[in-house]
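Same chain as my last thread, 95 residues:
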Amino acid sequence: MYLFSSYLLLLLLFNDQINAQNSFYDTYRRLAALYCYIDDYSIWLEQQISLNYFLQFSQYFDLDTKLIESEIERYRLQRECLKALERLPIIVGNG
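reply #2:
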């Protein structure tokens, strides 16, 4: 009986931790979309990598890079916004 009750208590503890982590990630995603204008991080990251390739391509062929550089600057600022969000103390759950 003691083993069963400790097992049940352990399951409840893990469930609370998993729910708190899910709530944290949801909060982080919501804040990233609200303040940094990043709706989907994986797509955002792929676009950033593509822009860097386009920049190298245009520099290689000596094309105008002003538009690409401005987009890369926007991605840099969004990355700085994400770093600022990571430093914010976010209260999740019961506080």
